[in-house]
Structure formats: C-alpha cells, structure tokens
Amino acid sequence: MTLTFTVDPVVDPALHAGILSLWTDVSNAGGAVGFVAPVTADDIRPALVKQLAAVADGGMRLLVGHDEQGEVAATAFLARNTHRLQLHWVWAYTVMVHPRHQGKGYGRDLMAATEAAARSMEGIDAIRLGCRGGHGLEHFYAACGYKEVGRVPGAIRVAPGDDRDDITMLLPLH
After folding, report:
1. Where are the alpha helices (DSSP H) in 103-174?
2. Measured in whole angstroms, how far is the alpha carbon of residue 77 from the centre of its chain?
C-alpha cells in the first residue's frame, strides 16, 4: 500500500474536512503539529482556515497524500518567504502522517514528496522546518537529509513545567 501525493489540489469541502480530521487525529495522538492534546476540530479549524487562505493567495503550497481508500493520510504546507532577501527558501509546515499509517514508511515518502514539490518551485534552494523537541523528530528529519541548524532551548511550552526545544532543520536542494 502506498500514498498518492498531489501538489496544489483543489480544496473542496471534502478535502478541507479530511485535512481537519487528520490534523485533529495527529494532535490527539501526541503529534507535534502546533497543538497539545486534547483538541477538537473546532480548536484546529481557525489555523487550518488561515493556512488554506494562504494557499488560495499563493503564499503557500499544499501537498496532500491520500491512502488507497482515498482518505487524507498526510499533508505538508510549503510557505514562501515574503522578505526580499529570503525568497530562495521555503518553510515546511504542518508536516503530518495519520497515526494509523505511521510505521509504514509514509513519513519518508511525505518528506520525499515535499522535497520534490519544493524543487518544482523556481528559485528555491532549501527547505526549512521547525520541530518540537522531546519527540526525536530531529532524528527522523536527519534521516531524510535535513541538518539541524538551530535550537532554542525551552522555547515551546506545551504545559506548565514542560518546555521543549524549538529545533530548526534545513534541507539544501542543490
């Protein structure tokens, strides 16, 4: 079984609902995607609407992976920079694979598809992404070719007394 990836899909109500469900399920399974469990779809919806508005405005690109049943199983958003001195790299945001599909190699597939999407963007030399410490995510991204280029200790507070490092990873595309 493999995922089918689409870059810049048409965001219809079914896709919107699928991404919202994915983001909620990943968050509630402990995924480090901007929220801390427990969350509801209503908690996540404003963040998704904001990101989809950026997609519609051309400031972000959306990558979606569907499983064999046609369900949304993975996503990544590539955000263009607006600063004139940083137009040569993009940020990867909301990189996630549904918990039911983890351990199948789909995370690596998603990162390869993310790299391919970034390479298709004219003038892009690198991908940066941030990850939350305490999950070992930096090791996963390193296995996908990313290098740790920055770390701010305790910059992410997931709960009182539970501060995590904010880790910046970089994948050069040349």
Report:
1. 106-119, 137-143
2. 6
Specify the amino acid at residue 2. Answer: T
d(CA 72, CA 64): 7
Angle (CA) 116-3-135 rounded to 5° is: 80
The pLDDT value recorded for residue 112 is 98
- What's the predicted TM-score (pTM) here? 0.97
The sheet carrying 60-66 orders its strands as 4-7, 60-66, 72-80, 89-97, 126-132, 162-172, 147-159
Specify the 3-state DSSP secondary structure of 125.
coil
3-state secondary structure 51-110: HHHHHHCCCEEEEEEECCCCCEEEEEEEEECCCCCCCCEEEEEEEEECHHHCCCCHHHHH
